[in-house]
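haha ok so turns out i had the wrong file open the whole time. this is the CORRECT one, sorry everyone. sequence first:
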Amino acid sequence: MNVKDFYFDLPQELIAQDPLEDRSASRLLVMDKNTGEIWHRVFRDITEYLHPGDCLVINDTKVIPARLMGVKEDTGAKIEVLLLIRKDKDIWETLVKPGRKCRPGTILSFGEGLLKGTVLDVMEEGNRLIRFEYEGIFEEVLDRLGQMPLPPYITHELKDKNRYQTVYAKHDGSAAAPTAGLHFTENLLKQIQGIGVEIAHVTLHVGLGTFRPVKVENVLEHHMHSEFYVVEESEAEKINRAKAAGGRIVCVGTTSCRTLESAAGEDGILKAGSGWTDIFIYPGYRFKILDCLITNFHLPESTLVMLVSALAGRDHVLHAYEEAIREKYRFFSFGDVCFFADLENEDTERENHGICPSE
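then structure:
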């Protein structure tokens, strides 16, 4: 399986630079994962595709202002540090630019000394292990000095940092947002519950590994980085109960999907617990628990396009992306959204509402 099998040509102007004022006003591309049929809707219409007894699974991780701009204390040279994984109370695995200037022993200063960091070690692939020193509470210092770690393809300044958080974000720890969840509003979630859909929370702290490019030609040689997840007992029970009763498990985003597929047994039963996952889902993978997926449009040749292709088929997914480009959908983190599901039995109902598939 070659990485180029997942390439598509995306015009630069379709990369969304700003979030919409109304989260739920994003466009929604709906695809039958079995037939490849496509419908063009608005995200708030997702309620028409959810059924009583379904379980909607959301990732309640919270993005921390993980980007720190500072200087080397000895030379004053500018340094950018991105917090990736908290290894201990004050020790973080980080990505540093430029890394070559930060050897072990280097002292970094942020906010005119409000926060200082000492490089302890150079890790695999060049990441730095840094111990931080400060007065007070680290999270409060970080909230004051840190910036939201927007992806490099977003060049506009984010005026409201809460727009890079889901409305249900709860547990600090992510270096990037679970962007499929950005389309939900509190009101829309209430509507979904009102039609009899259970909402289950899981936590996966999103690291940059998910978004790193695949640098090998053979997809099977790619190594995924680990991310920490938590599935509480009460939430596992919700999901297992819905599955046992014949409801569909609808994951919001690839992070929720990867959490469930990591924590589920081969029997399709979700196990409560926590741990690190480096699961890599690509075509040929047999899903143990997920039925449907709500997800944004992803980068060409990315592991996320491969995950969606495992669910809906590479040809169907690339066709959906071609259709989205033709229709000028907005791509990536602040862009529009897809819904992949088995919709064959719903054709008649949609036609009765005057909703026809795209030609």
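Residues 348-356 have pLDDT under 50 and may be disordered.
again sry for the mixup
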